[in-house]
Amino acid sequence: MFYRENGQFKTSYKADQQVFAIPQDRWAILALVVFAFVGIPLLVDEYLFRAILVPFLILSLAALGVNILVGYCGQITLGAGASMAVGAYAAYNFLIRVDGMPALAAILLGGLVAAAAGIVFGAPSLRVRGLYLAVATLAAQFFWDWAFLRIKWFTNNSSSGSVSVADINLLGWTINSPTDKYLFCLGILVAFSLMAKNLVRGNMGRQWMAIRDMDVAATVIGIRPMYAKLTAFAVSSFYLGVAGALWGMVNLGSWEPAAFSIDRSLQLLFMVIIGGMGAISGSFFGAAFIVILPIFLNQMLPLVGSLFGLEVSIALVSHVEFIIFGSLIVFFLIVEPHGIARLWATGREKLRLWPFPH
Amino acid sequence: MSGRKIGEVILDLKNISLSFGGVKALQDISFNVLEHEVRAIIGHNGAGKSSMLNVINGVYRPQQGDIILRGKHHTNMDSYGAANAGLARTFQNIALFKGMSVLDNIMTGRNLKMKANMLQQAVWFGAAQREELEHRAKVEEIIDFLEIQHIRKTPVGRLPYGLQKRVDLARALAMEPQILLLDEPMAGMNVEEKQDMCRFILDVNDQFGTTVVLIEHDMGVVMDISDRVVVLDYGKKIGDGTPDEVRANPDVISAYLGASH
Amino acid sequence: MAFFLETLLGGLMSGMLYSLVALGFVLIFKASGVFNFAQGAMVLFAALAMARFSEWIPAWLGMDNLFMANVLAFAVSVAIMFVVAWLIERLALRYLVNQEGATLLMATLGIAYVLDGFGQTIFGSDIYKIDVGMPKEPVMMLESVFEGGILINKEDFIAALIAALLVISLSVFFQKTATGRALRAVAADHQAAQSIGIPLGRIWVIVWCVAGITALVAGIIWGSKLGVQFSLTTIALRALPVVILGGLTSVPGAIIGGLIIGVGEKLSEVYLGPYVGGGIEIWFAYMLALVFLLFRPQGLFGEKIIDRV
Ligand SMILES: Nc1ncnc2c1ncn2[C@@H]1O[C@H](COP(=O)(O)OP(=O)(O)OP(=O)(O)O)[C@@H](O)[C@H]1O
Ligand SMILES: [Mg+2]
């Protein structure tokens, strides 16, 4: 069957407003999701789950959160890692302090606490804009870094803020093998992605984008900047909080504040820039890229080095990684500010018209 | 003009003064707007016309003066309040949401009328979905009215200037405003586009009874379509009346002649 | 009282260094609208160059005059920072003219990564020494006024002096020279400046060079105190609240903001820190700036702008 839109006329606005308006896309995505749930667990080994797939899923979720705020609402944040930290530590506290607290509920509550914190630290966005706001979000980053290191109550009196949780449990299903972790995170990611898509294609998303593109015009047509910005902060922080809780409790098992430092915040921002600002799919592309590139370099660089008889140290690999990330950021900002997602869309567009380009 | 009947004062501006640092953009300006009329504001570049519109819908706060809308005082009008009170506007330098499609841009105009909460929107169920379809239908009417069906899904950034101006108008109309403020809706258009735009404005005024306040440089157009005209010059009001009265006003004549050499 | 004064002076001295780094931010922002997040990376890069060349040059030339080695290393480092400035303009900035502030900021984040990566690839990633002969021993002052006098760290004092000198000479450069005037014209209005024939690209290279020099001096001062290592990049993060407090476009703002933050940090750490477990200086500066922003969104000396529509 051809990948064609021609001849498929929408007969109602409802059909026109579907998430994937082209049936082929709808089927492809459905097939992909089914494959992710059924096929991958059959095909893939533990290492791949642990090193690539689980981090990819969780970081995708976090990138979705950042994308909502930065890509859709245009409010730049350098404090995404802090939201993850709040989510992780809040979930941890719910889990250990409340008897019989189900893990999933703790994770979602962690997200809600992160959302509340996000609103508090997002409040300056009502007064300050752009660059000044970016610096304000750093305040959140440094404050929470400090709080989880020094305020003992948050970490149940553990030293240096490091905490750990036992295997978590969902309705009798103990999530301990890499496959379990993968499926658990996948389920959450699929649900959250769908919700994000719904939000951004509806009235909420239009308000965010209006504020991003031209805030004066947005107020003039009756969009309240306060409501739009704070909801973006809240939703974004909620996603980040849930991602943080998953990162700590599912991916790491035990963690300390450094897992959510400013480096994490920058990494998340980079994912969104490289993946595609203002595109849901961009979050996945960005996360995949950031997870895979270091592994790829770790394998490739020593090989390339040995061709020339050079010894490639681990430090060098990490420096090269820095250089590549940095250059790519600049490259994408100059050449394709909408990232890999746009490249992908353009490619698809060409395919749709192929072989008759006009 | 046809069926419409000019009504009472709907908007009354009293002694408005606005300055930016040392620049006195508006000095003690008063005038009113009657329901259903087409009211024009003219003047040279920098006369304060756009500032006047910005004061009316709360983008700028005047240092002095009173805005009375349907008998209610709004000394501290803000943009959100203005939108809620039925004011819509277009912009001199098009202020569309450039990352969004034409359809989405116009849909934003429905924002005040959409009530579904965030949770409903996230699951796209019930009220959220129903609302989206209802308002989409309304927006499609406006799209048909302004004859922009063919560009519905186009990102606005890719449109030529004339069409962007039309989308700007469409977005304002989507608010179903009672008063429509238009800042140079025909600037930079060719004759044909101007004619279309005139027709749209008059149709809106005529069919929906929308009151129109309009800034325009093209005198021919202004004299043709407006009921009454305010003339501003360096932040001061120098004339006010029907097109014929304004044309005969000696101050206006000297201001326009004075600046033309 | 003596203790309070000691803390205050300590704060003023470290504040002077913040002012220096903040000045780098402000100059670049004024001239090109770029909020340069790479300032910290530049500090590290410059300090690494200085540290390594002051070690390599004597080895290459077979000399053992510390002073000459430092002078040569300084000259080479300045040259390197100029090349960096030129490359940044050439490869990135010129393609980003007229982009929004947020985009430019993210671009400088990318630049920061590249600089960090390159710097450590070329110069190595251990901890290196810079020895420019800074005195290490503290001195007593005002012994006649207070019992026991107040203890001043000579190194900090000299550092603050150097920073102050540099800040003053840059301000003079900005106010009095033809290049400075061109810079200010560009800052006031890019297009207008361009239309009267001021070459935008060159101006940008110049401000980045100047920022490079401030980074080098800051790097040397901090590097000789703490050793040249990756954590130097965080110095720029420390200076950010200063810029916010002072207003992004104001040179006096950078200076006064630096002093306020320097003093605020020290006082809060000494008088507030013990109650909350210490280590609060970094976020305290941010909170101070943030609270300030809520009342004056454009900073102490920044211009208030009403959007035109
Ligand atoms: N946001 C602002 N900040 C500073 N000055 C402003 C601002 N908006 C307008 N002004 C000044 O106020 C005066 C009136 O400007 P305004 O835009 O209202 O003129 P106008 O009549 O609309 O002119 P034009 O025909 O060019 O659109 C001008 O001197 C302008 O420079
Ligand atoms: Mg105007």
Second CATH tier, the architecture of the largest domain in chain B: 3-Layer(aba) Sandwich
Q: What is the strand tally of chain A? A: 4
Give the helix/strand class of chain B: alpha/beta
Which ions and ligands are bound to the chains?
adenosine-5'-triphosphate, magnesium ion
- Mean pLDDT of chain B equals 90
Overall shape of chain A: it is globular
Q: How can the largest sheet of chain B be summarized?
A: 6 strands, mixed
What's the domain count of chain B? 2
Annotation field: number of helices of chain B: 10
Class of secondary structure makeup of chain A: mainly alpha
Beta strand % of chain A? under 5%
The low-confidence runs of chain B, each spanning 5 or more residues with pLDDT under 50, are none
Sheet with most strands of chain A: 2 strands, antiparallel
What name goes with the CATH superfamily of the largest domain in chain B?
Answer: P-loop containing nucleotide triphosphate hydrolases
Largest sheet strand order of chain B: 6-7-8-3-9-10
CATH class of chain A: Mainly Alpha
> Biggest interface and which pair forms it?
A-C, 45 and 49 residues
CATH architecture of chain A: Orthogonal Bundle
Cα(first) to Cα(last) distance of chain A is: 21 Å
Based on CA atoms alone, the radius of gyration of chain A comes out at 21 Å
Structure, described:
The complex is a heterotrimer of chains A (358), B (261) and C (309). Chain A is mainly alpha-helical and 358 residues long. Chain A is 72% helix and 3% strand. Chain A has 14 helices and four strands. A two-stranded antiparallel sheet of chain A has the order 1-4. In chain A, strands 2-3 form a two-stranded antiparallel ribbon. Chain A starts with 12 loop residues before the first helix and ends in a 5-residue tail after the last helix. Chain B is of the alpha/beta class. Chain B folds into two domains: 1-86 and 177-261, Rossmann fold (3-Layer(aba) Sandwich), CATH 3.40.50.300; 98-176, no CATH class. Chain B is built from ten helices and ten strands. In chain B, a hairpin with a 2-residue loop joins strand 9 (228-233) and strand 10 (236-241). Chain C has one domain (21-239). Chain C is built from eleven helices and two strands; from the N terminus they run H-H-H-H-E-E-H-H-H-H-H-H-H. Chain C is globular. Helix content of chain C is 72%, strand content 3%. Chain C has 309 residues and is an all-alpha fold. Chain C has a two-stranded antiparallel ribbon with strand order 1-2. Chain C has helices at residues 2-32, 39-61, 66-91, 101-123, 154-176, 178-188, 190-195, 200-226, 234-246, 251-276, 281-295, and strands spanning 138-141, 150-153. Chains in contact: A-B, A-C, B-C. The B-C interface holds B 20, 50, 54, 59-60, 91-93, 95 and C 306, 309. The complex binds adenosine-5'-triphosphate and magnesium ion. The site of adenosine-5'-triphosphate has 12 residues of chain B, from strand 2 and helix 1.
